[in-house]
Amino acid sequence: MNIALIAHDRKKEMLTNFCVAYKNVFENHKLYATGTTGKVVSEATGLKTNRFLSGPLGGDQQIGALIAEDKMDLVLFFRDPLLAQPHEPDITALLRLCDVHNIPVATNIATAEVLITGLKEGLIDWRKLSKK
């Protein structure tokens, strides 16, 4: 499964800790990440991440392109809702693509926990559900 990892600056530590906690799940999947997030997660966990540009420099759009090409299965995007982002239109476009293509997206740790637990337990196969 292809999983995208994205985190705003004040959420990078939270996403990194999440990846450490679920390293045994993530190591069985192909990980993609925006630039700095991928670097931080890889350094902390040893997980291989395919890194794109930083989000504000086009990384969000690069991940969006994989979604549009049906090459992404899950997005974990730990957003900071209390800080305005200069690339907000890119963020909105990425979330829209997730909705259009039925890609599960978690924008906070609570939803990420549900998705990764479901993935770990094999309880949900959203690819089959979204094709009906």
Automatic annotation (TrEMBL):
It comes from Proteinivorax tanatarense. This is Methylglyoxal synthase. Keywords: Lyase. GO terms for biological process: methylglyoxal biosynthetic process. The active site is at D60. Substrate binds at H8, K12, T34, G35, T36, T37, S54, G55, H87. Belongs to the methylglyoxal synthase family. PROSITE patterns: METHYLGLYOXAL_SYNTH (PS01335), MGS (PS51855). HAMAP family: Methylglyoxal_synth (MF_00549). The gene is mgsA.
